[in-house]
Design a protein that fits this description.
nucleus; GCFC2-like; 6 helices; single chain
């Protein structure tokens, strides 16, 4: 409809401007519609910095034992070893994902897999803690 016509006209006019100006850096099929202006980029960076600053404050009034995934999982591991019946009756394996979800989300706020030097999920401390907990769980179940 009208939107498709507008986009086609807009692209045609940009192509004509590029041809007149001798711009040879443009690759056909690549859109400049998604490119941010300097003001938009500055606004995005400011907004991103505010979110990151706020995320650092989320757990500042929480005891370290209750915002560190490794420490939380150690408490559950102790519970499982000392009181296995109670642990199973509480369906902890179903509760842990919901419990850990907000903690993991906070740690992933700044993670961007599109950046060149991003950290692999498997290398993150929270991922390793969950892996270790799962390995200990499998060992204790085998016993």
């Amino acid at each position: 409809g009208r939107i498709t016509e507008f986009i086609a006209k807009h692209r045609t006019s940009r192509r004509q401007v590029r041809e007149c100006s001798g711009d040879t850096d443009h690759h056909e099929g690549m859109s400049s519609d998604d490119e941010l202006t300097t003001a938009q980029e500055a606004e995005f960076q400011k907004s991103r910095d505010n979110v990151l600053e706020d995320s650092r404050k989320i757990f500042e009034d929480v005891h370290a034992d209750f915002c560190d995934i490794r420490k939380i999982l150690l408490k559950f591991q102790e519970w499982k070893e000392k009181f296995p019946d109670s642990y199973c009756d509480a369906y902890i394996s179903f509760c842990l994902p919901k419990l850990l979800h907000p903690l993991i989300r906070v740690q992933l706020i700044n993670w961007n897999p599109l950046e060149q030097n991003f950290t692999e999920l498997e290398e993150m401390p929270w991922f390793r803690a969950i892996e270790e907990f799962s390995a200990a769980k499998n060992v204790s179940e085998a016993k």
